[in-house]
Amino acid sequence: MRMVEAMSDVTHVDVLVIGGGAAGLSAALVLARARRRVLVVDSGRPRNAPAEGVHGFLSRDGIAPADLRATGRAEVERYGGRIEPGEVLAVRRVGDGFAVELADRAVRTRRVVVATGLRDDLPDVPGLRDRWGRDVLHCPYCHGWEVRDQPLGVLGWQPAGVHQALLLRGWSDDVVLFAENLADADRARLAARGVAVVDGQVHGLVVEDDALRGVQLADGTTAARSALFVPPRFRPNDALLADLGCERDNGWVRVDPTGRTSVPGVWAAGNVVDPAVQVVNAAAAGAKAAIALNADLIEADLLEGAA
């Protein structure tokens, strides 16, 4: 088996990583350091692009998402990995490997890591998407510290809103849940935690001087808030995994603890298979997948040599 310090020919690689976020770059880094020929194809549309910083990542807390990715790309390239912008159009099995169709050519690879993340579906409230990642937020652990002690709102458009409102009381004494048809049991829990409930449909946002000032209800009243948390509906970007026939559990592609899917030779890591993981967890998942994948390649080489 020939392993190289750097790749000049990316037509044939050991591993093709689809997605250049924390999970994909972490996998590529570990594999490049293991002297594997690695190609990362990245669409350049990171989910956390609107966020001011990445939080809860030890030694990287507060780093801008773009800076984290730039640092990761440089580290991968330092060890001979290759990173290219682009879209993967299709992946299909060819023998014991895969043919990956890009816009301009096909790449042959022995193994595939899919780290394409997810997208956030938001309710149809005017102005919500424009403020996303700024003062319309999705995760108390990611953004709670930055808006601590401020008047906070939670849009209770789905059951996770109650949980978020209960969580946010740890960051602020002034938390309001905007909800319709709230169950009595949930009202009791929120009251016990000191969370106010505003009944009614949210109609829009009040923004002044490029900052959220309030949440407007359908009846015309406005509740003054400086940040609004909105638990999104998570939609995995897993069309490639579906086309490969990967098995699912509860709507998400099923993986083992290393990220191995039900399709031999295909790993998946990060938000594409787990909506709950944060950046630090996604990076760890990518590293774990890379270690298992490298061991799998070694076993394949041994079997080939014995044949």
UniProtKB/TrEMBL annotation:
According to the UniProt entry, where is the signal peptide? none
| Protein name (Swiss-Prot/TrEMBL) | NAD(P)/FAD-dependent oxidoreductase
Which PANTHER family does the record match to this protein? THIOREDOXIN REDUCTASE 1-RELATED-RELATED (PTHR48105)
InterPro entries from the UniProt entry: FAD/NAD-bd_sf, FAD/NAD-binding_dom, Ferredoxin-NADP_redctase_2
Q: Where are the transmembrane segments?
A: 12-32
Report whether Membrane shows up as a keyword of the record: yes
Record's keyword annotation contains Glycoprotein: no
Which keywords does this Swiss-Prot/TrEMBL entry list? Flavoprotein, Membrane, Oxidoreductase, Transmembrane, Transmembrane helix
- Span of domain FAD/NAD(P)-binding: 14-285
Which reactions is this enzyme annotated as catalysing? [thioredoxin]-dithiol + NADP(+) = [thioredoxin]-disulfide + NADPH + H(+)
Q: A Pfam family in this protein?
A: Pyr_redox_2
